[in-house]
Amino acid sequence: MTQSRLPAVLVALVLLTSCAARRPDASEHDPWEGLNRKMFVFNDKLDVYALEPAATGWSKVAPLRVRTSISNFFSNLRFPIVTANDLLQGKVLAAGNDIGRFAVNTTVGVLGFFDPAAGWGLEQRDEDFGQTLGVWGVPSGPYLVVPLLGPSTVRDAAGQAVDVALAVTPWFVDTWILAAARMFDAVDERSLYLQEVRDAKASALDYYSFVRNAYLQRRNAQLKDSAVNVDNEEELYHPEIAP
Amino acid sequence: MMRRTALAVCLLALTSPALAGGDAPRAIVQEMTDRAIAVLGDQGLSSDDKRHRLEDIASAHTDFQTMSQLVLGRNWSQFSPQQQTDFVKEFKAHLSMTYGRNIQNYRNEKVVIVSDREEARGDWTVQTKILRGGGAQDILVDYRLRRQGDDWRVIDIVIERVSLVANFRSQLQEVVSQGGPTKVIELLREKNARGEPIAS
């Protein structure tokens, strides 16, 4: 019961904050930076002491091809979430693409472990309810570092809660198995980015703002794909025209 | 036959001005990535040799001055000419160190140019993809180029939709506002000095 109420509470929170602070999405609106930084350090410690060692160990046992296949398998299971959000954004053709992908990869791709659909022009797409809210015109609200889940915004965190409700798997898979699967998914996914994260930490001048900016840029780019006008990119390249 | 040739020539004449303008950035990125891949795949070179050659290729086609200016945005004018020179130098060294780390990780990946387009104020974006087995494994890398006389130079690299210029600007924003130009250059120097040397 409490769990099912969470999305509604978060959506309300988004609407509240978006009224309070009308800011363009592009800016790095981070009024909770103090708390966020603490949470960021907590997540990073968890990564350094638990997730990364587990992922490193896993990468020594399983070859890259196996780990990629497992990543494909879990991403294939996200199909109901992606498709539902396509439809909520009115992208009927994209929904067709995703249904086609699921059908091809579940059959020819052996339960989703392989991705033959990509080679047939059915590329993987990424949709979630955070993006759907963005398409509907809900501003991102303040930046938010969520325990365990990492960088987000108020809108995207609310979106994630809704996506949990949209996933079909919990209907017929036991909670404990689901929790174990999610952990396995996290370890496997992390094992694909061992070097990248190491590099990012070594080269970042401020790792917190590095991650925050990268997250917000990516989210903006995804919204831009949906023809949502999020920011004036030209200002970045022509400082003289900035207001 | 004659008529067809004439038609072809006419078509060519019609379209070539557009090609001459629009083809240059794409050709430059193509050449740059081809040369970089040749260096990376050369078994006879040590990591240090590779790094130096890659630096030369990057220097030939990148406008580090403009890139630095964009990274600092409106803060650029707070820097004295000497500080500007120092910043450009340290920033370049920082990039070289960051990307130099990846030299040993090269696994025969190929690069393809996906598309190119003109931006609103005359810059040109060339989209490339580093092929690593298809689908989500591939890496999207966009180069933004700006015309300089007869030449085009890279002013930003956008990896998986994340602009390097915007990312560094964000990281440095607070440093500039709290410690001024001196602090920024100090931070870069310190970071560069700590960078692990490449094992060859």
Walkthrough of the structure:
Chain A has 243 residues and is mainly α. In chain A, 67% of the residues lie in helices and 3% in strands. Chain A has one domain. Chain A has a two-stranded antiparallel sheet. In chain A, helix 2 (33-61) crosses helix 9 and helix 7 packs across helix 8 (154-166). The radius of gyration of chain A is 19 Å and the shape is globular. With 200 residues, chain B is of the alpha+beta class. Chain B has one domain (2-193): Nuclear Transport Factor 2, Chain: A. Chain B has helices spanning 2-40, 47-61, 64-72, 81-100, 164-194, and strands at residues 110-118, 124-131, 139-148, 151-159, 162-163. In chain B, a hairpin with a 2-residue loop joins strand 3 (139-148) and strand 4 (151-159). Classes of the chains: A mainly alpha (243), B alpha+beta (200).
* Total domain count of chain A: 1
- Poorly predicted sequence stretches spanning 5 or more consecutive residues of chain B: 13-20
Q: Which structural class do you get from the secondary structure elements of chain B?
A: alpha+beta
Net shape of chain A: globular
User: H/E element string of chain B?
Assistant: HHHHEEEEEH
Neighbour order of strands in the largest sheet of chain B: 1-2-3-4-5
From the N-terminal CA to the C-terminal CA of chain B, the straight-line distance is 60 Å
Number of H- or I-type helical stretches of chain B: 5
Characterize the largest beta sheet of chain A: strand count, sense, and whether it forms a barrel: 2 strands, antiparallel
The coarse overall form of chain B would be: globular
For the record, what CATH class of chain B applies?
Alpha Beta
Number of domains of chain B: 1
| Overall CATH architecture of chain B | Roll
Mean pLDDT of chain A: 85
Largest sheet of chain B: 5 strands, antiparallel
The largest inter-chain interface, given as chain pair and residues per side, is: A-B, 32 and 43 residues
Amino- and carboxy-terminal Cα gap of chain A = 48 Å
Work out the number of β strands of chain B: 5
β-strand number of chain A: 2
Strand-residue proportion of chain A = under 5%
